[in-house]
Design goal:
With 428 residues, the protein is mainly α. It is built from 17 helices and no strands. The chain has a single domain, classed as MFS general substrate transporter like domains (Growth Hormone, Chain: A), CATH 1.20.1250.20.
Length: 428
């Protein structure tokens, strides 16, 4: 038991990482509470699936525009400063929305604007946080640390939606109270970083422009087929399959005819599956089997999204969501940890921003998916999304094998959670 616990959670032995992990948990909790509440507000204000897609689009567009810039900033500036500034703006933005709701002044365009601001900030938070993890724990522990960061996020998905769903149904708390609570979570995350080091970038031999850094990052990934294949798989699955999260309010209220509280139940069911899967992933990061498990989880995720679309009622939907959450979390956690373990430290920010582009496309794809759902039906749309995920993952795997990426993977002699060098050709 002790051996299993150590191999699963050994990155938390680092005090600085443990402090960052705890603070980030509050940030994730606030974010997950807002996902549910934002979807509820959009649906209540408009009554259309396309409105949920529009809110998610507002979150995704700035990420698409700024994600690469965020990666460059993470590799060029003190990471703690980047996180402080970005998360402070997120907290102020959250407090503003809460106040608009409290005074019954919130309009749909304001929800769109708030999503745009939050998406812009997360373009800098994501790369800086992942690169900062590398600073705190070193290469030997980074894969495990990234997985545990995902565990923090998935754990917040268990608690956050349930809290949000319950409080939405309490008149004197409501959506305004939920947003005020999330603001407090963001503030706690900011305060928790005070004792941490600045996370200064390593000195460079020569100074380069931000655009040169972006091009250098693109060349770096192109020269490493392993990382490129992981990035492409993540991009496709996030864009095509993960927008299901934006329509859970519609599934519960429009398809199942259930109460508002059931929105949190459905999301929490997926999060429970995600937590279990992430703990399992944390325990196998030393195994070479992760290279086979990662695409398998992507395929299974597609099938579970199809099953969600075919679910006839809330009870069946809750059961299916356990597997949707488990396979989706296992896929994305393995994808992120493998990518960060393979990348050289000075490229962590840019690699994370490039592989994280899928989250911006996820936001952008939600709007057209919402229009499709309004015209052909939400259930049918979910089935189509899942089927396209399966096809996408299998296609990338076939292309990767044709380019000998699979052969390069098996030539690697170093476990993922230990020091992993870029051995697949190309260079800086």
């Amino acid at each position: 038991m002790n051996s299993w616990f150590h191999s699963t959670f050994f990155a938390l032995e680092n005090k600085q990482y443990r402090l960052m992990w705890t603070g980030t948990l509050f940030s994730f909790l606030g974010m997950q509470m807002q996902v549910i509440t934002r979807g509820y507000l959009a649906y209540e204000l408009t009554g259309r699936n396309s409105a949920l897609g529009a809110v998610t689009l507002a979150f995704g567009v700035p990420q698409l525009m700024l994600s690469l810039v965020g990666g460059v900033i993470a590799d060029r500036l003190p990471k703690r400063t980047v996180l402080w500034v970005s998360q402070s703006i997120i907290a102020v933005n959250s407090a503003w929305v809460a106040t608009m709701i409290a005074f019954d002044m919130l309009e749909f365009w304001q929800l769109i604007l708030a999503g745009f601001i939050q998406g812009a900030c997360f373009s800098f938070v994501g790369p800086a946080r992942q690169a900062f993890i590398g600073d705190l724990v070193g290469r030997e522990r980074i894969a495990n640390a990234v997985v545990l960061q995902q565990l923090s996020m998935n754990g917040s998905r268990v608690v956050g939606p349930s809290i949000a769903g319950a409080f939405l149904g309490i008149s004197f708390i409501g959506a305004a109270g939920v947003y005020y609570m999330t603001t407090l979570g963001f503030v706690i995350a900011i305060v928790s970083m005070i004792p941490l080091p600045r996370g200064n970038p390593r000195p460079r031999a020569t100074e380069t422009s931000p655009m040169a850094d972006i091009m250098d990052g693109l060349r770096y990934m192109r020269g490493r087929p392993q990382i490129a294949a992981l990035a492409m798989t993540s991009l496709l699955v996030l864009t095509i399959g993960f927008p299901y999260q934006s329509f859970l309010a519609s599934v519960v209220l429009g398809e199942y005819g259930a109460t508002k509280a059931a929105i949190g139940w459905l999301s929490s069911a997926g999060a429970v599956g995600g937590v279990v899967a992430t703990v399992w992933v944390a325990s196998i990061t030393n195994s070479r089997k992760v290279w086979m498990i990662q695409p398998l989880m992507g395929v299974l995720f597609g099938f579970t999204v199809m099953a969600l679309g075919a679910s006839p009622n809330l009870v069946t939907g809750l059961l299916v969501m356990l597997f949707v959450g488990a396979t989706g979390a296992a896929f994305q956690t393995l994808n992120t940890s493998l990518t960060m373990a393979l990348a050289d430290h000075e490229y962590h920010g840019r690699v994370q921003s490039l592989t994280g582009l899928g989250w911006s496309f996820f936001g952008i794809a939600a709007l057209p998916i919402g229009f499709v759902a309004d015209h052909v039906g939400l259930r049918e749309t979910l089935v189509l999304m899942g089927a396209l995920c399966v096809v996408s993952v299998l296609t990338v795997e076939l292309v990767a094998k044709s380019r000998n990426v699979a052969r390069d993977r098996h030539l690697s002699t170093v476990p993922v959670a230990r020091e992993v060098r870029g051995t697949t050709g190309g260079g800086r």
